[in-house]
Amino acid sequence: QGKSKGGRKVIITCAVTGAIHTPSMSPHLPITAEEIADAAVGAAEAGAAIVHLHARNPEDGRPDQSPEAFAPFLPVIKQRTDAVVNLTTGGAPTMTIEQRVRPAATFKPEVASLNLGSMNFGLFGMLNRFKEFRHQWEKDYLSDKGIIFRNSFADIEYILTTCAGNDTRFEFECYDTAHLYNLKYFFDQGLVKAPLFIQTVFGLQGGIGAHPDDVLHMKRTADRLFGDDYRWSVLGAGRNQLPIAAMAAAMGGNVRVGLEDSLWAGPGKLAETNAVQVRAVRQIIEGLGLEVATPDEAREILSLKG
Ligand code: KMH
Ligand code: ZN
């Protein structure tokens, strides 16, 4: 992890909109290209070194993984910030693997996400709050039977081989310990290279929980499998966002926030911007005597192409 006289450098990633939250859940969820660009710029100005991006149909907010949907905001973000751009290959659970990889294959970003295993996505807690949806697609999409997020070994390899040669590095999304072992398999095959940027995800129904024991277990497993060959980051879903970030920052990790992961800025209080969450986590990091990494420091820590 990065070091300096002033204290260890902590990389903040901000995931500004994602594909699971829908427009009816928060009026603050960025939908249009302009909103996504403004959210990313605001997050970067508040201290996010990396912005993790999805795109949406501006008419109804539906996740849209066509390169044309990303094209209007990527140059704006590049022009207005120095932040590392991280494009999703997770897309949405309804999309095919070929659709999911297209933005990363087209724009060849410094970072793309890569999900390390198939899993259930149980959104029951969230759905209990939202009986009324503005759009029919939200109702169909967030089926009350739960969603399966497919990431087979073949799917993962497809994304790796499609992006090979682009110098894109990955944010490896690991939602449970098995996913760390899956990553280890690809590492041993030589298909992914150190330093691995591992995003351990806590508190999604279908993945590992958000108890401190869960955080310790994921870290210990990653330490055992990868030693010095990885950089650790955490993401806590919903109300777990800041507690998980605080735990990991104190334990040597990096952090991810953003409206993709939580719509909240406190109990019962919707986050009005992504920047609000970045500022909140920044306060925790600085309160611990640590420093927030700049985009260039993140590039160095993660060996990005820059
Ligand atoms: N929604 C997440 C918990 C992706 O875009 O590849 C993780 C994620 C997936 O960001
Ligand atoms: Zn995402």
TrEMBL record:
Keywords from the UniProt entry: Metal-binding, Transferase, Zinc
InterPro entries: Aldolase_TIM, BKACE
Residue stretches spanning the membrane: none
GO function term, MF aspect, one: metal ion binding
Keyword Zinc on entry: yes
Cofactor: Zn(2+)
A Pfam family matched in the record: BKACE
The name this protein goes by in its record: 3-keto-5-aminohexanoate cleavage protein
Originating species: Roseomonas acroporae
Phylogenetic placement of the source organism: Bacteria, Pseudomonadati, Pseudomonadota, Alphaproteobacteria, Acetobacterales
